[in-house]
Amino acid sequence: MEKLKQAYAVEVIWHSYELRPIGSPPIPPEYLARIQSGKPRLIELAREQYGLELNPGPSGIHSRAALIGAKFAEAQGKSPQYHDTIFRAYWQRANNIEDVDVLAEIAYSIDLERESFLAALHDDRYNAQVDADIEEAYSYGLTGVPALIFGQRYLVSGAQPYEVLRQVLEKVQAE
């Protein structure tokens, strides 16, 4: 996405989606084993295709607080910084982004006031915004992430190579 933003000056608008909503049943051990067994390949692909060194955080976490924090960061004009920092914390430093102390440190690192951020995690406005995003995703039939929607018409599901994203973007621009 960063490469697309630089090359084509596209605007990225983030929306919330919970893979593991609070109250979800535990992840079956055999599924957790599949996730773990796929991590080496994921790490290899990230290195080969994107030059990224991954060290992912724990599997099966609840991201609700991180999503609410994203809405607060967006309201403060810090959405890009928040998303970048959250992704690096989880995917490169193996931080548990379910932990509100971890989230508060992330917020503070991008110049959000810690106590305001923590208060926002309990604010009904931001919680409702997360719910609205999730309902919209369900209405589109989305069941996973990442899911990228280009020009409100084309869905690209899953982590795709840059070339796929570039082709879709160029098609949207040509239309």
Question: How would you characterize this protein structure?
Answer:
By secondary structure, this protein is mostly helical. It has a single domain (2-174), classed as Glutaredoxin. Helices cover 58% and strands 5% of the residues. The protein contains 8 helices and 2 strands, in the order H-H-H-H-H-H-H-E-E-H. Strand 1 and strand 2 form a beta hairpin. Helix 3 runs antiparallel to helix 4 (79-91), helix 3 (64-75) packs across helix 7 (124-140) and helix 5 (100-109) crosses helix 6 (114-120). The longest helix has 22 residues, at 29-50. It is globular. The model has no long low-confidence stretch (mean pLDDT 91).
Mean pLDDT: 91
Give helix and strand order, one letter per element, not per position.
HHHHHHHEEH
According to CATH, what is the class? Answer: Alpha Beta
Helical content band: 55-70%
Please give the order of strands in the largest beta sheet.
Answer: 1-2
The CATH superfamily appears as Glutaredoxin
Uncertain regions spanning at least 5 consecutive residues: none
- Structural domain count: 1
What is the number of helical segments per DSSP (H or I, 4+ residues)? 8
Which structural class matches the secondary elements? mainly alpha
- Cα-to-Cα separation, first versus last residue: 21 Å
Number of strands: 2
Backbone shape: globular
